[in-house]
Amino acid sequence: MTKNKGYTLVEMLIVIAIMAALAGLSMYSIGVIRNAKRQAAVTTFDNQISSCLVKTKAVSEVTGDNVVCMYISKKNTGSKNYCIKVGYNTSAGVKDVVKGTVASDTDETTWDAVLPKDVIKIEYNGTAIADGGSQKIIFNKSDGSVTMGGGSYKFYKNDNEVYATVYLDAATGKHYIRY
User: Fold this and answer.
1) How many Å is the Cα radius of gyration of the chain?
2) Would you give the distance in Å from CA 80 to the centre of its chain?
3) What does DSSP assign to residue 103?
4) Contacts by 156-164 with C-beta closer than 8 Å and gap 24+?
5) What one-character-per-residue DSSP string does 35-54 give?
6) Contact (Cβ atoms closer than 8 angstroms) between residue 88 and residue 66
7) How far is CA 62 from CA 103, 142, 157, in A?
8) 28 or 105, which is more confident?
């Protein structure tokens, strides 16, 4: 019977090399997942703009409390995510078109979309939407132009790096994404 004296240096180097390769693959996978979440957030944002325009066109009369808007808010409680609601613009907040309930900072189910935390910051025309802050987009029913909120919305993956920009043309209401 031979005595086991442990691992040889070559065996240890092979194990370390395998562990390093696995760690590298996992870091790459995490980056891919984060990019996919950010891209989905920008697409959701763009789709909500389209929804706002469609709902504006569907409203029979635009007066008082039935002006449809897209409301972007950065929650200052809990998860600190950006939330989006398309509904009627009222003094109490943005009210759901069908249910009539007002979007709540404490209840995520009242929002149409909650963007992932991977979206660190959104800037509207160079000004960040801060904690507790908000931005509204309102379309003109007759021609689809933007009466409030036209311009660029930059999505950041860290404080200084723009991931994507959504452009909303105020004159035409057309919008597109640039990565």
Assistant:
1) 23
2) 12
3) P
4) 156/119, 156/120, 156/121, 156/122, 156/123, 157/34, 157/38, 157/118, 157/119, 157/120, 158/120, 159/120, 159/121, 163/38, 163/42, 163/119, 164/38, 164/39, 164/42
5) HHHHHHHHHHHHHHHHHHHH
6) yes
7) 21, 10, 37
8) 28
**Residue 99's pLDDT band (cuts 50, 70, 90):** confident
For residue 68, pLDDT over 80 is answered with: yes
Query: Which contiguous run of DSSP H or E holds residue 14?
Result: helix 9-58
Model pLDDT for residues 125-179, shown as the tens digit of each residue: 999 998 888 999 999 988 999 999 999 999 998 878 999 999 999 999 999 999 8
DSSP SS3 for 30: helix
Structural contact between residues 105 and 93, judged by C-beta atoms closer than 8 angstroms: no
Q: Which is more confident, 104 or 175? A: 175
Task: Provide the 3-class DSSP secondary structure of residue 57.
Answer: helix
Measure the CA–CA gap between 36 and 78, rounded to whole angstroms: 23
Tokens at 30, concatenated? 């995490």
